[in-house]
Amino acid sequence: xxxxxxxxxxxxxxxxxxxxxxxxxxxxxxxxxxxxxxxxxxxxxxxxxxxxxxxxxxxxxxxxxxxxxxxxxxxxxxxxxxxxxxxxxxxxxxxxxxxxxxxxxxxxxxxxxxxxxxxxxxxx
Length: 124
Description:
Elements: E1 50-62, E2 68-77, E3 83-93, E4 102-114
Antiparallel strand pairs: 1-4, 2-3
């Protein structure tokens, strides 16, 4: 017979910073068959500044029967030419079956850009 002692784990968390108080959570349920849901959260305010960037992209000359993997890498360049990564999205464009190669328009690729990452030097 083997006897093991009661194990214990000690976890020390790092410093936690809360720059602004968090809003009161709102319970939300989305049914598995729903694509979207509308929720009234009552009176709210924009506590953090930022921007939403929405892109439309045309992928040129997509041949019939070919799926395309599209990656959008978003960067910001400061006044000194230094480039900063801001986000990435990957999208699979399904194959089309038109007789010839076609341009495919991909709409509404969205990025959320927090204001505190802005490196424009005061000129956003």
